[in-house]
Specification:
The complex is a heterodimer of chains A (318) and B (508).
Chain A lengths: L8 H6 L6 H27 L3 H22 L4 H25 L4 H22 L8 H6 L11 E3 L2 E4 L1 H29 L1 H6 L4 H42 L3 H26 L3 H19 L5 H17 L1
Antiparallel strand pairs in A: 1-2
Helix pairs in contact in A: 2-7, 2-9, 2-10, 3-4, 3-5, 3-9, 4-5, 4-9, 7-9, 9-10, 9-11, 10-11
Chain B lengths: L23 H16 L15 H10 L3 H26 L3 H10 L1 H11 L4 H25 L4 H23 L12 H4 L7 H20 L1 H9 L1 H6 L4 H23 L4 H15 L3 H24 L6 H19 L5 H30 L6 E3 H8 L3 H13 L3 E4 L2 E4 L1 H24 L8 H7 L5 H10 L40
Antiparallel strand pairs in B: 1-3, 2-3
Helix pairs in contact in B: 1-3, 3-9, 3-12, 3-13, 3-14, 4-6, 4-7, 4-13, 5-6, 5-7, 6-7, 6-12, 9-12, 12-13, 13-14, 13-15, 14-15, 16-17, 16-18, 16-19, 17-18, 19-20, 19-21
Classes of the chains: A mainly alpha (318), B mainly alpha (508).
Chain lengths: 318, 508
Amino acid sequence: MTLVPEFQFHRVFIEPWTTELGSHGLMALVTFLVGVTCGWIGNFLILRRMALMGDAISHSVLPGIATAFLLTGSRGIGAMVLGAVGAAFTTHLLIEVISRHSRVRQDAAIGIAFSTLFAAGVVLIAVFADRVDLDQDCVLNGQLPMIPLEAPVRLGGLVLGPPPLVRLIGLWIGSWVLLLAFYKELLLSSFDPGLAACLGIPVGRVHHGLMLWLAMAVVASFEAVGAILVIALLILPGATASLLTERMVHRLAWSTVHAALSAVTGMHLSVALDCSPAGASVVAGAGWFCAAWLFSPLGGILPAWWRRRRDRREAGGG
Amino acid sequence: MTRPASIVLRDPASRMDPRKGRGSLRFLAAGLVLWLACACSTEAAKIGDLVEVRWTDQARRFLTLADPAVRHACLGTVLLGVSCGLLGSFLVVRRMALLGDALSHAVLPGVALGFLWNLEKDPLVIFIGALAAGLAGSASVALITRTTRLKEDTALGMVLATFFGAGLCLMSMFQRLPTGNKSGIDTFLFGQAAALGPGDLGLMGAVAALVVVTLVVGHKEFLLVSFDPSFARVLALPTRWLERLLLLLLAFSVVSALQAVGVVLVSAMLIIPAATASLLTDRFHLMLVWSAAIGAVSGLAGAFLSFLGTRLPTGPFMVLSAGTFFGAALLFSPGNGWFPRWLRQRSHRARVARENTLKAIYQVLEAGGFSTESVPVEALAKRRRVAPAEARAEVRSLVGARFATAAGDDVLLTPTGWQRACAIVRNHRLWELYLTHAASIAPDHVHDDAEKIEHVLGEATVRELERRLPRIDVDPHGRPIPSVPSPDAAPRTAGGAGDRPMGYGGRP
């Protein structure tokens, strides 16, 4: 058996959309939903220079989820969200307390808080391996391939799909509602917190709301891509979009496009190489980021080089 | 996917004695371990293919150091703690803690490719692969921040996650191979100190020795580059090369630590011991020593705890031990700890409260022209503008500090109490005088300031005030400034304190 399976056009590009639609197509859909929800939040995180806060929170939800499992013995979404939000809040608090009340600076405080909490989560999972329905593999890779196998949710006679898909669709609809309702507040408090406070926008509450939204998105993505790759889904769409446009609405649209592209190409990549779908979609997303980095009309490497060359030639000719 | 192999399942043929190292630290550690092992080698137990283990047995086996795998684990974790602790200090003081995080996650595809080289766990090849990937990761961070508008935190997070995702892809491809599951490559994710082989130890020893020697030789230059890069540049030090050398050493120690602590948590072993050390001392070379020691001890603790069960990874336990040290330092560090600081603040507040009571007693006595020796509690309460019950509590605190004795509802100052009361009133009035005299502040504006500073004026400052003021007998409000009597003088004799001004501590 070889490392890289032989490339067959039909298996890689046709089958996922025809015979395998129920499994691979569904996985791509789940990845897209996770990517778009996280990507929207990521845009605001990048603006607020809180990208690493997202990293910290995505690591530290692990002990929260593990504790929720241990206490309730079920995978109920309520308990998981509660545990994860609790853990996210604890991380936030720890970082603030350490960096405000000791000489340890914020970057080290972030590193200390999330790695200790993550270690606690891994230890919980390893020690109570027989009682927690999670393992180290799931923490790292997520369980995307398992999602199509779960029993679908039925509403009356209507088959809606596997529970994670239903949850993610719910979360995405929630994101739409939040974004339409609070777009102005979010935008202003990210760009200019001082002005936002002057205009009577409760900046602190917006911040906490954003953290809550982040925690919920992280819990949902945890199931799909595991604890560590969430950071990629949070940052890559927003970072790519910020290379392509200046306006926030356009950035949100571009990050949606990025999420869709990386979900689909990631799915094809994982079929072609027969590797972890979560990892593949991250690699694909990074590939799209590199494309934007190279070709973006707004300061991409190649257009800038081309302009410099043209300017030089014109200067030399004139 | 198999779980990380536990120590009891390992093939006995792969255990060999630790090789003799050249680095002095490694030599010391090896000597210590060998001595301990000789001291209790009678315990040497035959390790069978146990699956079920009791943690008490495991603890005994670890503590007696009878098992070569245990000795390897101990030596390896100590070496890891030392080299990561030393280099982590530089990251922490330069506010680059999260670069360590990105670097350590970025090595994963290198580990996988190094493994792919000949499909077995060859420490040297994996070391080279991981090193290349780690350096590529940190170079991409630099490239992204230089050529785009993205900030460093975004670039770090992106590189970290992308490299890690690529590594996971590669690893999931190996796991389909027939040899993939037996390779033990998954122990690289969360670490397994018990799986350290002699080759790993040789590499870790070499890296630790290299780190120690480089830091000892270039200690002055590295210090300067870390604390004041522009001054270093002015001195024509090759700052860029020194920084690159540090980064290279950092990558070396991260990569050599992978087998024991794992890719996911190695950054914590860089940051946490160094941050703990920074709470314990102000001097950088002491911080290096503390950081290395804390790293080594938490490494050992992690190896021990993960040894207690069969399928426990080492890395998380190591990080939890280091986190415990950090928490303890945060709470109890003598200089900056929250608990000592709270105690200091509490005793300061209590002293200020006592001194305010003493001052009030002095003022009551002064208002009565020093005709009486004792002060009624009601008069004190009125002067302090508090309820009589509160005044009684204040008096009790004075009695506890032996500044006063209470007889019924009357308070009587002891000689030390009288001396302290005079000193406080003198501080207050001297300061008022100084402000009106030297800073030309109106006499009705100086009281509040003096109220604060009277508690913290030291003896030397008071002498300096006395020297600078032309006359020190009457304060701006026309009240006499008392001298401070010798401790054995009774309050009664100080009746005319203002008549004959005297220096602090009885100096004429």
